[in-house]
């Protein structure tokens, strides 16, 4: 997955796993997982199955945080993004499109944070929450790989939370964009790992209080 040209340009380092992980699940809401609800959606069933494995594995060690994209009816909180993506109008706050996908194994103890832009960090309390919990390893999953996952990964790195993207737990409407963005994130901003690696890392962590 690594691009040797980027290594020659000075990239190709690696991030270190810590002992205080969190799982950030970006926008696995019905407006992105059920095509009959929104044109923004695609089949995310395989990725959600992987996410559920991650959720079970991380619960003894750290928090599970979800984000959902949601907007006011006039889209004023979407800013100019709605000019580029007018179908954001299908994600109105309080609607079915803004509910978590029902096949995800969420509980009442999990955080669900609303956002209006691509990154899970932009205009949200996510960075403060992770800092307060002293998180040193941030696993990322959700959709889309080329959009909100990538934006969240870059911000996670800039905020000092080492991002670990779980490949099978991410989805995109375009397989080509999914693949190319995983390569670019691995080279520059994150560790892109497969699901067995993530589960193995979590199994080796000592049990900590959330």
UniProtKB/TrEMBL annotation:
<dbReference type="Pfam" id="PF00857">
    <property type="entry name" value="Isochorismatase"/>
</dbReference>
<protein>
    <submittedName>
        <fullName>Isochorismatase family protein</fullName>
    </submittedName>
</protein>
<keyword id="KW-0378">Hydrolase</keyword>
<feature type="domain" description="Isochorismatase-like">
    <location>
        <begin position="22"/>
        <end position="194"/>
    </location>
</feature>
<dbReference type="InterPro" id="IPR050272">
    <property type="entry name" value="Isochorismatase-like_hydrls"/>
</dbReference>
<dbReference type="InterPro" id="IPR036380">
    <property type="entry name" value="Isochorismatase-like_sf"/>
</dbReference>
<dbReference type="InterPro" id="IPR000868">
    <property type="entry name" value="Isochorismatase-like_dom"/>
</dbReference>
């Amino acid at each position: 997955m690594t691009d040797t040209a980027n290594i020659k340009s000075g990239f190709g380092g690696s991030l270190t796993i810590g002992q205080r992980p969190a799982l950030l699940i970006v926008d696995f809401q019905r407006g992105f997982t059920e095509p009959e609800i929104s044109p923004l959606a695609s089949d995310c069933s395989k990725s959600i199955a992987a996410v559920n494995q991650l959720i079970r594995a991380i619960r003894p060690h750290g928090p599970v945080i979800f984000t959902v994209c949601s907007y006011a009816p006039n889209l004023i909180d979407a800013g100019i993004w709605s000019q580029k993506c007018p179908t954001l109008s299908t994600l109105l706050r309080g609607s079915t499109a803004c509910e978590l996908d029902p096949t995800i194994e969420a509980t009442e103890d999990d955080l669900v944070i609303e956002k209006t832009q691509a990154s899970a960090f932009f205009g949200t309390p996510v960075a403060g929450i992770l800092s307060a919990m002293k998180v040193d390893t941030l696993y990322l999953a959700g959709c889309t790989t080329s959009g909100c996952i990538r934006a969240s990964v870059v911000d996670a790195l800039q905020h000092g939370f080492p991002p670990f993207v779980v490949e099978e737990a991410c989805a995109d409407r375009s397989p080509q964009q999914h693949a190319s963005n995983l390569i670019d994130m691995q080279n520059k901003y994150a560790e892109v790992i497969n699901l067995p690696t993530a589960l193995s890392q979590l199994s080796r962590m000592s049990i900590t209080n959330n």
